[in-house]
Amino acid sequence: MKMRSLIEAGRIKRNKGSSLQDEVSYEMRFMDNSNLLEVMDLQGIIIQNLSDKEIFRTHSIDYFRDHFNVENAVIGIFTEDGLIAYNILYFPGENEDNFGADVNLPRDELDRVAHLATVAVHPAYRGNSLQSKMQGAHLKVIQEMGFEHVCCMVSPKNRPSLQNIFSHGLIIKALKT
Questions:
Q1: Residue 3 has what pLDDT?
Q2: What is the pLDDT confidence band of residue 2, given thresholds at 50, 70 and 90?
Q3: From the CB of residue 163, how many other CB atoms can be counted at a distance below 10 Å?
Q4: What is the pTM of this model?
């Protein structure tokens, strides 16, 4: 598959729901290792602004570096403020962390599973359907690559993420702590 850069461009609202609301241009594009520090910075902002830290799982710099090494696995959304959102795909193969095993897929199907692994949106840009846009783009990538199963893990406390997952036709197949 050919590496793609720009996926989509448009306008979104910053500080949605506040009196400081204004419209800014954005670009959604595939990212690489050159964006590593931006992703780490955004992850820090997300954690600082969460009232319930349990709904977001943090990751090490090595986690992000590993995913940047997989073509089209990381999507980011950029505005004049820099990186404001990211979404990561993971291809677990037959590893023990394959969610396909949790839903009892046959062993020979596990290499056809892709995970919608990590998503983050800057608090000032929530409410613009950015998670849904990035996941939609990644679902197209998954389909183009020939994967047949898509799995993800979402905290039941994270209603916006659950709604985004459901809007793409995914359903709950298993519960896990």
A1: 45
A2: very low
A3: 12
A4: 0.89
For the record, the structure tokens of 111 come out as: 């290499």
Report the CATH number that the domain containing residue 48 is assigned in CATH: 3.40.630.30
Query: Taking the mean position of all CA atoms in its chain, how far away is CA 157?
Result: 17
Domain annotation covers residue 128: yes
Alpha helices per DSSP H over the chain: 36-48, 61-68, 99-102, 130-144, 159-167
Name the CA radius of gyration of the chain, rounded.
16
Domain ranges, residue 27: 6-167
How much is the mean pLDDT over the chain?
A: 89
Q: Give the model confidence (pLDDT) of 46-73 as tens digits.
A: 888 887 777 788 889 999 999 999 989 9
- Residue 117 inside a domain? The answer is yes
Does residue 142 lie in a domain region? yes
Q: Cα dihedral angle (32, 55, 167, 8), rounded to 10 degrees? A: -30
CA distances from 3 to 72, 156, 175, 177 (A): 7, 34, 35, 36
Task: Report the C-alpha gap between 128 and 79 in whole angstroms.
Answer: 13
Residue 1 lies in a domain: no
Number of domains in the chain: 1
